Amino acid sequence: MKPVFVSDLAGDTTVTTFFLVLEKEIRSTREGKPYLRLELGDKTGAIEARMWDQFEAAAREIGRDDFVKVQARVDVYRTKLQLAIQQIRKAKPEEIELADFLVHTKEDVEKLYASLVANAESIRNPWLQKLAKAIVTDPSIAPRYKRAPAAKVMHHAYLGGLLEHVISLCGLAKRAAEHYPELNLDLLLTAAILHDVGKLDELCYERAISYTVEGQLLGHIVMETETVSRAMDAIAGFPPALKTVVLHLLISHHGQYEFGSPKLPMIREALVFHFLDDLDSKLAAVRTALAAESGEEEWSAFSGALQRRFLKLDRFLERANTAAEKAKQG
Amino acid sequence: MKPVFVSDLAGDTTVTTFFLVLEKEIRSTREGKPYLRLELGDKTGAIEARMWDQFEAAAREIGRDDFVKVQARVDVYRTKLQLAIQQIRKAKPEEIELADFLVHTKEDVEKLYASLVANAESIRNPWLQKLAKAIVTDPSIAPRYKRAPAAKVMHHAYLGGLLEHVISLCGLAKRAAEHYPELNLDLLLTAAILHDVGKLDELCYERAISYTVEGQLLGHIVMETETVSRAMDAIAGFPPALKTVVLHLLISHHGQYEFGSPKLPMIREALVFHFLDDLDSKLAAVRTALAAESGEEEWSAFSGALQRRFLKLDRFLERANTAAEKAKQG
Amino acid sequence: MKPVFVSDLAGDTTVTTFFLVLEKEIRSTREGKPYLRLELGDKTGAIEARMWDQFEAAAREIGRDDFVKVQARVDVYRTKLQLAIQQIRKAKPEEIELADFLVHTKEDVEKLYASLVANAESIRNPWLQKLAKAIVTDPSIAPRYKRAPAAKVMHHAYLGGLLEHVISLCGLAKRAAEHYPELNLDLLLTAAILHDVGKLDELCYERAISYTVEGQLLGHIVMETETVSRAMDAIAGFPPALKTVVLHLLISHHGQYEFGSPKLPMIREALVFHFLDDLDSKLAAVRTALAAESGEEEWSAFSGALQRRFLKLDRFLERANTAAEKAKQG
Amino acid sequence: MKPVFVSDLAGDTTVTTFFLVLEKEIRSTREGKPYLRLELGDKTGAIEARMWDQFEAAAREIGRDDFVKVQARVDVYRTKLQLAIQQIRKAKPEEIELADFLVHTKEDVEKLYASLVANAESIRNPWLQKLAKAIVTDPSIAPRYKRAPAAKVMHHAYLGGLLEHVISLCGLAKRAAEHYPELNLDLLLTAAILHDVGKLDELCYERAISYTVEGQLLGHIVMETETVSRAMDAIAGFPPALKTVVLHLLISHHGQYEFGSPKLPMIREALVFHFLDDLDSKLAAVRTALAAESGEEEWSAFSGALQRRFLKLDRFLERANTAAEKAKQG
Amino acid sequence: MKPVFVSDLAGDTTVTTFFLVLEKEIRSTREGKPYLRLELGDKTGAIEARMWDQFEAAAREIGRDDFVKVQARVDVYRTKLQLAIQQIRKAKPEEIELADFLVHTKEDVEKLYASLVANAESIRNPWLQKLAKAIVTDPSIAPRYKRAPAAKVMHHAYLGGLLEHVISLCGLAKRAAEHYPELNLDLLLTAAILHDVGKLDELCYERAISYTVEGQLLGHIVMETETVSRAMDAIAGFPPALKTVVLHLLISHHGQYEFGSPKLPMIREALVFHFLDDLDSKLAAVRTALAAESGEEEWSAFSGALQRRFLKLDRFLERANTAAEKAKQG
Amino acid sequence: MKPVFVSDLAGDTTVTTFFLVLEKEIRSTREGKPYLRLELGDKTGAIEARMWDQFEAAAREIGRDDFVKVQARVDVYRTKLQLAIQQIRKAKPEEIELADFLVHTKEDVEKLYASLVANAESIRNPWLQKLAKAIVTDPSIAPRYKRAPAAKVMHHAYLGGLLEHVISLCGLAKRAAEHYPELNLDLLLTAAILHDVGKLDELCYERAISYTVEGQLLGHIVMETETVSRAMDAIAGFPPALKTVVLHLLISHHGQYEFGSPKLPMIREALVFHFLDDLDSKLAAVRTALAAESGEEEWSAFSGALQRRFLKLDRFLERANTAAEKAKQG
Questions:
Q1: Is residue E37 classed as helix, strand or coil in its secondary structure?
Q2: How are beta strands D67-77 and B80-90 bridged, if at all?
């Protein structure tokens, strides 16, 4: 673990520690004096940093997404801290623990992954089972499946978040299929396991969560269409009609055109899966909003994903109760 | 059971049977000759009828929503049948079995109702339990709760349909609460049991399903707000804050303003309940579309509720398979 | 009247006066030193305040919406003033004049209220008259009706604003009914008097205008439906059909679903009332925009309610005229 | 008055009368036999007509919008009548009374026109008064202003309807200005008098109400901009800034882009005028819906302009009352 | 060429000819008598046919999309013809000329195809050239590329229509790139040649133009993504970044989410190509509307694709001119 | 050229130079001390300035849009510079070169203008040619046509930008008409030359680009309708139908109601012209976004006009290539 985190910094001190470079640019003061401006960060936050002198070599050597070792003075500027860099160099791989830089799921990733494989194996249709297993055990996919977040900001936005979301969906799918016997559980499980595989490449989450250029130009729906299509082609005898069905499940899972689905769900299970996915994602967003500090006693933080605040139900009921008690006693 | 149903009629015959008057008007031919035009129906369909002579007394006595006994000739006009009424009079109550005129759920209504009560009793919060039980066992509500359809056309549009929908939602709520332990099952069950109580008065379903004037002017959300609010006031000591929460669950359950919810869900359980209600309703609409005769081998009838057709999945996979087999053999 | 208002404060002085606590939180400097941060205000504005030492007792005792007596140094920080609190305690009720903390209508509230009662009495339909009078003279309603603002920010956002808006609407309703003899004036007056009664509880305006939790979860339309419904039930023999009509007027008065009306106006007077209410509210918003300082010679301040600026008509015509005169003379 | 109207026709008779040609085409039977198909009409309705033999000369001579004298057999085809033309020729001007072919306002047009002029004269701003008078007394405008309908179908869709609508708006404007003293009545009256002048040319209403090609390509807002602009230019010394204001009132009076206003109202009176115009038009549409035969006891005909039905208020209250009385007595 | 086309049929005759089965069902008269109902067609139109007796064998043997030989009586029913089938059997392949059943482009398909290849060869970037050539010369693609329509109804809805549209786009792309030197012509040509390749499989156009099940579930954008992606993978060394660019051009070419593009154009050439494609398609729709018989002298038929009519410009100017001439002379 | 530009300023110096007054107001410090606050600018940017003492005379004499001569100290406040004015007076006309204050097209304006006239002369229809020439050579129009920007911020937002845009459109129109022989080039050229003439008055661009009051109230579409209409009326014998066509081209060129077109394109050339105008404007916006400094290696600056970033194509391909090379070598 690194010696000092962003959240530990205190004004008017000097620190030596490691950061990730989030942004880098050369700016000039109005007077024309150039300086190096960096945004540095770790899993606890981000801070602005400036280097005023002899920064040329550093500016050449260091780029965005590099890990750096920094010696700097921490200036307090009113309510904000800022680093004045004295020395900076690229960190050596052995100096860095990635876990210091990105938030992780609190679940045990290996258990989640085992559950993912078990879910794939529980699929009874042999073609779909082969497909799901091929994807989740593909050595070029599995390690990234364990790491990937489910989104950049909307929900499950942390390492392992995708896996957490998918396992939750598999459980939800089973409950839905028990409740509605008309549903084909195999299709729901297949959809759950494959529907966000494109996020492995849409997002970049080595050091911070962001979109890849490919992700921005194509999006995870199109990207996973290719991955999954290829996996189906690699299974000798995979029925073409079933392939069409699987692809339809993937491309329709956002449920509406304006959310990037080029087709609306036209298969019963595709419609149901869209609902389950939407529910699990939105509920995760509510969870995040309620967990965040809101500064309001009875309302959560504002949820950007859902464009509203949520009531802190227990707090509200309890306060109302207390007020009523007092009124009675008073 | 009545002797002849609409679906039994054959051209160039004469029948004597009972019908419900769906529409009634006096029209004139272009030549100015007046005649009585009726739309008559039963649970199997509707048929146009005309009475050309001596219809004045009948026209006075008989109105929309009356049951009538009719003797008529069945004319074939190209592909449509039409009745030429010879005699008509109001039916006596004892001549009519209501079940001949409206489609019923295929479930056992009493069992469904017992399940409703059991669900109400399973609520652990004493206030909510009292409320739910008070509503479902209210003698002015219970008999109508057993009969009411869930909608006029969108989903569960038959007698007992509301009960079917609510029981399904209770089951779904339990599964959701098992899956997401953070959810308050009591609130979900309360919402399921109460959310469509306003439909008891919004719809008229004595003889055919239609909207009451009150239903059109107020809508079931506003109507049930009053019913449930009154029931809460009748429970001594019902906590006011909890009342607000219950009312919010009701008024937000359509999830969006344009579907008539004056507030968006701002409580976690309100959001989840909206999803469950929407899923159960939409899935019922898919079921209806797939069950209807569509004239297409691989596509369901067009669903007005969902504005699309759905794939007949098994048929599609099977046909594709057969075609592939043939291709291989050929 | 309190000794010093926010708008009177000058830098580098020390003051002792009363404020309302708008926000309260404990924050820490980056260095981890905790301090008390308050937002204090009165009817002339708001100011940030910090207490750096021995604030623990104050922090326990004082909460949002409390009135406080404060002794503080006024620091000038560049263009903003800020209070450094030296002493703070809760104010005693007798030390406070509420009028120092909220903007009032400039009209005479008692006269407005007398006009409200007179309008209620002018209703000729006996049921509607009884209803309107019962509401406006209800001792639990009348005092709040005199105080309530019509909205938090959109229009008439000051104490007594609701009354002003309603009296204006009554006058407008009479003119509309004179102009269109087909209109039922009784219904228009009833709508005017009752349509915003829910705002008495939707908004909290004891010390500052904000939404109550109940108001956010239910909204004034649903809330007044309950109030007015109960008042109708309390009038023996109130015709149920007329009750439906009154409730429809209330729930449809926003005119469109996306503004929170669960039903569109389906009665002629409901449609007309929606227009009158919308006109009176929007015109008040224009008035506010034109009265505010805009920094532009020919354009009003930007109206958030209407999403545009309005022309200062007289100024524009006059300037154009002067310019033309000059051009002629030059 | 012509001898026989469409509404007088009876089957299996022969008639000789005058009609307006609404549509004309040469069609062929499937067997390739050509025939002349006409749609003929008068103010009471329209009827299809066919001429099977020796129609060539007629087809050459006669066109859409011509008045014709016809001798024909009236065939009854089930519930529809149809003419089999035996002889047809263009009518002579002296044979036709235009009043037989288009619905007129029931008001006295000359009185309405006198009121229009009086309203123009009541404008106190000398420039606006000159402008309004110049327009309404322009000999190329006045006769058409007396005849024009206010719309093709939406509201006041009959000869003289525009004048009726404008006079109503002038009255409404005066009431609004009395109620809101801040309003400039001169601007409101000017807007009322000029805002639909473009409809004189947008619509064609010599023989039936339809759009001119120019009307479809430009619309009345753009068309009247030119007419009024030219009239202002013809008044020596008309202040340019006031011209801008007048034009803004015209182009913004539909209130929203999607209704063809290229600018939103940005002057207080422009906003108010938009509301008044919208109210008067919509109320006229409600009036039409309530007056039309709907086939429903408690609901009006469906209003295409407003996309809903309206409650027949008196009928509903009365029926509910009667039902209640009965229930009490029973 | 077949002996008789739909457009040749005349009433009260008997014909023997070939048709395509467009629809097939067994229906019953109200009296319960079953009959075989077919919709038969060729490139000149469609006609309803019924077989009343001994149709069982035919009903078993014959299906939708089959070609049949029919002997039937042509009944005239009012203005519609209808076939009463006497004998029917499947046609033998050698009896059928496909050209009798679908409308073709009027261009020379081989010349268009040669131009397509030439356009592909004109691409200077070696990877894109290889890709475009691989696609257009792929033996499983080329013959279908020559046949495919560009759409079912919106534009270029006839055999060879896709090729026509693509060649037009290539020409337009060259002109755009000459005009805006900043544009990369290679990308525009690549987009033009590949952007609708998915339509080869989205549409079925062997016998009539319709959507395949795969086409409805996936859409041409997703389908061509797979085809083109595979083609790029088959070219050794194809740069992955360029692959991303090509795929982005394909998936963004509808320009907006609601038209099924899962991504908006984010590359300059993607934006420009979207405009060119939209222009060429819309202009083709205008062309179709203007060519169709509209029954109006100055207005085209209503264009469903563009939701409006278009002015017949020359006719309008000429008629206006003639009218003016007359007015002058008169 | 003026001695010092905004971009030349350096902290802690004293300057004497010329600026344009962009904003002016009298403000007070919290302590009630008034001061003069100006926003000053030239073509290289803007800077805030304050005058603390003896500013009364200056405040009276100087207004927005005046050129001033200023002597001031340049203060550095953190990263922003600010002027403390010591002396200020209105500049004399002869001291100012307008070119110092607004960005110009880099093209030769006289050449562009000659091309404009040549394009007008190339129109073959004599009426349209006369019209176009009359407009572009009108001495009250031509000088402003040479100066006007095409928009305030969306595209071609610099002096001469309108001319650049129009010339580009003329070229594009010719290419489109060559490609689609059905198009009437005369109409396209007329539209190109006239479609933004209203911008000459909608925008004010003497010293900075902003909207005139008239421009905000009427918009360029309505304004040019009047200008062009008048020009057509001034040409003896101009065919009225052609006038309607020209006006339709102008008012429909934004293509959609919400962009301020009161009519949708209903003439083929109007539709095509809308596409060409939209393409040229959007491509200019892309050009601007790509030229601006974005701080991102592979993405352009965010385009407010298009609400997205664009890929820096060459950079992306090259970087990807380099990365691939390295990977291969590594």
A1: strand
A2: unpaired
What sign has the CA pseudo-torsion E214, E220, E224, E225?
A: negative
Tens-place pLDDT, residues A196-209: 999 999 988 877 78
CA distances from C190 to C242, C269, C277, E81, E256 (A): 12, 11, 13, 63, 48
Q: Which of E5, A222, C298, A268 is nearest to F204 (CA)?
A: C298
Encode pLDDT of F91-145 as tens digits. 998 998 877 888 888 899 999 999 999 999 999 999 999 999 999 999 999 999 9
- Which other chains touch chain B, taking contact as 3+ CB pairs less than 8 Å apart? A, C, D, E
CB contact under 8 A, D76 and B217: no
Is the dihedral angle over the CA atoms E184, E186, E192, E194 positive or is it negative?
A: negative
Hey, what are B116's tokens? 């409703």
Instruction: Give per-residue pLDDT as tens, E144-195.
Output: 999 999 887 778 888 899 999 999 999 999 999 999 999 999 999 999 999 9
| Structural tokens at position E270 | 């993607």
Q: Nearest to residue A239, comparing CAs of D3, D208, B314, C263? A: B314
Cβ <8 Å between E266 and A217 = yes
- The parts of chain C modelled with pLDDT lower than 70 are 28-33, 76-80, 293-295, 330
Residue whose C-alpha is closest to residue B90's, from B70, B119, B118: B70
Using a CB-CB cut-off of 8 Å, the residues of chain F touching E306 are 271
Contact between C88 and C68 (Cβ < 8 Å): yes
Write out residues 142-181 of B within 8 Å (CB-CB) of C: none
The two structure tokens encoding residue D183: 């309003």
Residue among E25, E30, E213 minimizing CB distance to B81: E30
Restricting to A residues 249-268, those with a Cβ less than 8 Å away from any Cβ of E are 251, 257-263, 266-267
pLDDT tens figures, A157-176: 888 999 999 999 999 999 99
- Cross-chain Cβ contact F30/C81 below 8 Å: yes
In chain E, what residues touch B11 (CB-CB under 8 Å)?
29-31
Contact C264 D308 (CB under 8 A): yes
E298 closest CB neighbour out of D31, D32, D213: D213
Model pLDDT for residues C12-22, shown as the tens digit of each residue: 789 999 998 88
In single-letter form, the type of residue at position C150 comes to A
Interface contact C239-D320, CB threshold 8 A? yes
- pLDDT class for A210, splitting at 50, 70, 90? confident
Q: Least CA distance to A22: which residue of chain F?
A: F296
**Per the CB < 8 Å rule, is E213 touching B316?**
yes
Residue F49, H or E segment: strand F45-51
Least confident among A86-95, C191-200, D200-209, F264-273: D200-209
CB F215 within 8 A of CB F223: yes
Residue C35: which H helix or E strand, with range?
A: strand C34-42
User: In the prediction, which pLDDT does A103 show?
Assistant: 83
Give the burial class of B50: count Cβ atoms within 10 A of its Cβ; 0-12 exposed, 13-18 middle, 19 or more buried: middle
The average confidence (pLDDT) of chain D is 89
* CA B300 to centroid of chain Cα atoms: 21
- Cβ contact E317–F239 (<8 Å): yes
Q: At A152, is the pLDDT very low, low, confident or very high (cuts 50, 70, 90)? A: confident
Q: Which residues 6+ apart lie within 8 Å of D188 measured at CB?
A: D173, D176, D177, D269, D272, D273, D276
The neighbours of chain C, by the rule of 3 or more Cβ pairs under 8 Å, are: A, B, D, F
Handedness of CA F110, F111, F117, F120 (dihedral sign): negative
Report pTM: 0.86
Tokens of B133: 């039980």
Contact (Cβ atoms closer than 8 angstroms) between residue B43 and residue B67: no
Beta-strand runs (E) in chain A:
13-28, 34-42, 45-51, 67-77, 80-90, 203-204, 210-211
